Amino acid sequence: MRVGFVQNNPVFGNVQKNLARVEKLLEGQSADLFVLPELFATGYQFKNKKEVQGLAEQVPEGTTTNALTSVAKKNNTFIIAGLAEIDKNHVYNSAVITGPNGYIGKYRKIHLFDTEKACFDPGNLPLKVFDIAGAKVGVMICFDWRFPETARSLALLGADLIAHPSNLVLAHCPQAMITRCLENRVFAVTADRVGKEDRIEGEALKFMGKSQVVDPDGNILVRASETEEEIQIVEIDLEKARDKFLTPHNHIFEDRREDLYC
Ligand code: ACM
Predict the structure, then answer these.
(1) Ligand 1 pocket member 213 (CB < 6 A)
(2) What's the CA-to-centroid distance between 111 and ligand 1, angstroms?
(3) Quick one: pLDDT at residue 55?
(4) Which domains does the chain have, with CATH numbers?
(5) Predicted confidence band at 109 (pLDDT cuts at 50, 70, 90)?
(6) What is the dihedral of CA 214, 120, 65, 204, to 10 degrees?
(7) Ligand 1: nearest atom to the Cα of 168
(8) Residue 192 and residue 208: Cα distance in Å, rounded?
(9) Contacts of 225 (CB under 8 A, 6+ apart)
(10) Tens of pLDDT along 4-23?
């Protein structure tokens, strides 16, 4: 399977421009799955819920999902990308999963970070694994990494690979994702953005790039720069994620001592 990430630098609020830029970056690129960053087409730092409501879109009816589906059809690929979703009077920090045959599903971020709590409703959908190009793919968004139960739940649901749209501001995440992969023997594709946003007084944000693909042995297969927009693609062997033995006598799930855990 060939998997890739897009690392972009969106202009806050300019959805058309950001979509066009990502479409350009993806032109002529070939992979089975591309992961795009969290809120890749709107930008990240909303001031309040009203502002999110102004830019959020229905999923799957909205412009961003439709544009991604068109690209997925054109490039014969699957795309998992973060976007602001509106559903009646609720707004979610969501990810959409779409492919060559159209819309597949969505995930709504369950662990909201910092000021996101004032802007979004917490995700209310169960963690789920999607069938994508022969792989079982789980989805989590950025700060979900800080709660190991998220990746563990996806792995227990059968995920071979975790798609991880992100807007990273906490320095430990790229390294921590290596641990998430080791803990669960899964692949992870973290798609981050670069650039800065300074829309809330005293809360300037710098996004760290370093999008990456990590394998079940904790190897970083590819990692992007901290400053540039880029696409990287790598070939992965899913069988590696399906072997949960650490030694002939240690199985990563069967050796768990659920009788002694909280
Ligand atoms: C984050 O969850 N975007 C830090």
Answers:
(1) no
(2) 9
(3) 98
(4) 2-251 (3.60.110.10)
(5) very high
(6) -60
(7) 4
(8) 8
(9) 7, 194, 209, 210
(10) 999 999 999 999 999 999 99
46 Cβ contact list (under 8 Å, min separation 6):
52, 55, 84, 115, 119, 199
Q: Which of 52, 109, 113, 139 to mutate to test the pocket of ligand 1 (most atoms within 8 A of CB)?
A: 113
Non-local CB neighbours of 67 within 8 Å, separated by 6+ positions: 19, 23
197 in contact with ligand 1, CB cutoff 6 A: no
Pocket of ligand 1, candidates 42, 166, 210, 211: which has the most ligand atoms within 8 Å of its Cβ, to mutate? 166
Based on the residue annotation, tell me whether 109 is a catalytic residue of this protein. Answer: yes
What number is the average pLDDT over the span 122-143?
98
Nearest CA to ligand 1 atom 3: 167
Distance of CA 239 from the midpoint of ligand 1 (Å): 31
pTM of the entire predicted model: 0.98
Summarize the confidence of residues 115-122 as an average pLDDT.
Answer: 98
> What pLDDT digit, counting tens, does each position of 37-65 carry?
999 999 999 999 999 999 999 999 999 99
The answer to whether the CB of 142 is under 6 A from ligand 1 is yes
38 in catalytic set: yes
Which is nearest to 83 in space by CA: 114, 113, 120? 120
Residue pLDDT, tens place only, 159-182: 999 999 999 999 999 999 999 999
pLDDT confidence of 244, banded at 50, 70, 90? very high
186 CB within 6 A, ligand 1: no
Is 26:4 a contact under the CB 8 Å cutoff? no
